[in-house]
Amino acid sequence: MPGKTVTGGAARPPRVRRLRGSVPVPLLLPALLGLAFLVLPLVALLVRTPWASLPEQLTSAEVWEALRLSLVCATLATAVSLVLGVPLAWLLARVDFPGRGLVRALVTLPLVLPPVVGGVALLMALGRNGVVGRLLDDWFGLTLPFTTTGVVIAEAFVAMPFLVISVEGTLRAADPRYEEAAATLGASRFTAFRRVTLPLIAPGIAAGAVLAWARALGEFGATITFAGNFPGRTQTMPLAVYLALQSDPAAAISLSLVLLAVSVAVLAGLRDRWMTAS
Amino acid sequence: MSRSVRLAAGVGATALLVTLTACSSSDDTAGSSAAASGSGSSARLSGTVTVFAAASLKESFTTLGERFEDEHPGTKVTFSFGGSDSLAASITGGAPADVFASASPRTMAIVTDAGDASGTPATFVRNRLEIATLPGNPDRIASLKDLTRSGLKVVLCDKEVPCGAAAQKALDAARLTLTPVSYEQDVKASLTKVELKEADAAVVYRTDVRAAGDKVRGVDFPESADAVNDYPIVQLKDTQNAEAAKAFIALVRSAEGQKVLTGAGFLKP
Q1: Cβ of residue B200 closer than 8 Å to a chain A Cβ
Q2: Is B196 in CB contact (< 8 Å) with chain A?
Q3: What is the mean pLDDT of chain B?
Q4: Is the separation of the CB atoms in B9 and B58 below 8 Å?
Q5: Complex ipTM > 0.85
Q6: Each residue of B128-157: pLDDT tens digit?
Q7: FRET partner for B159 with CA separation of 20 to 30 A, picked from A15, A128, A270, B172?
């Protein structure tokens, strides 16, 4: 034991020192600028927050309704993404089928698609007069725009790709031989997935879920386009912030602060799991 | 490049400053003579005029913008159409605009109170509300009260936006309470939901119903008389092209401009 610490102690410090001393200025300067660029707006938000009137701004019923709706919808959207996205990621990572590259591109399309375009596309597909939505309306009397379900759908549409990408990456990194071993021991492919693969990639799933949840929480464009804006039913926090900004900037800042706090709390709380997963 | 263009325009404008200011000061008072003096100064105007205008002005202002470019070769009119409130917010936030045309005096006041306007806003048109329904009016909506029927999907503009404020005024006048399925962020967004058949009806401006052609059907209601919106227009203080901005406002207020606007369904002030 003592010998071990001595060798470890002798080997480590010089390496650390060398690394610290050798950060080149051409890297350090842009790095610090980058940090300032990303953090400054958030600091400005804190500076401009009307702290005196904050308690009364944040205890209004409308704010709590919007926050509650945001949290509920983001969580439901994450649940939808998990149920559909994990199998989809497995399919992309483990099954070799023609056109897999194209499917992967389509799956990740919402990542780069402007959310408003996503909202328009959802209207065309699932709106009351949409390609599928018309059938839903005719057969079941089910309409999705202007409903909380519509919010969940819009959020899941933009958030699920984050989960799929994250899980697929983890699956590719995971050793398939464990699954093969399970199969040779008589497990069916589904059992192997459930008992071996899932526990193996759990950190990746958690990371993807957090990303998806955070993305869903911030969703604006697709939501306002597809689900509209009604307090308590479809008005999530980002919508409330946008509409408050038009008449009451102070309220908008206060609302933004809440979203910022929630996002920071979530990312800080799960950061370690997320980082180790990748 | 745009800066050098602007600079050249500035040099040209300074040379003729005296004549121009003489022209434009008469523009403000006499709308009908404006078209004449506007075309008289056509050689001198150049550069871009950026107009922030209420969403409901989209069709008529686009037409007027083209007229303006024809009458003053070398000029370009660019528009930003949107909810008056968000436009006002961008202007007070420092958006580079030369002219602001709003759908209500209240939103105009946001800009003038912030000291961003140059001169006093002038009312150039008025607008009335109308109910937009699906083509053929399948739900047989004949009055504002019909909109309160259960099962009917109605969208209104958000109360923060002029069309929403006006709708609320009309509803109050009729002593009706109406729960819409959504409060949209501007009048065009409300109308679009009906055009897409996602909503059964929307309370929008007459002019929007007319602009939508046969994609929607308009239903007049008497309470709209209690909620007529005045549309003010003003030149902005931070304008980069004051003379062209003045000339555009003059065109809007001229007999020619009024003809385009009333043709689109607006009422004379």
Answers
A1: no
A2: yes
A3: 84
A4: no
A5: no
A6: 999 999 999 999 999 999 999 988 999 999
A7: A128
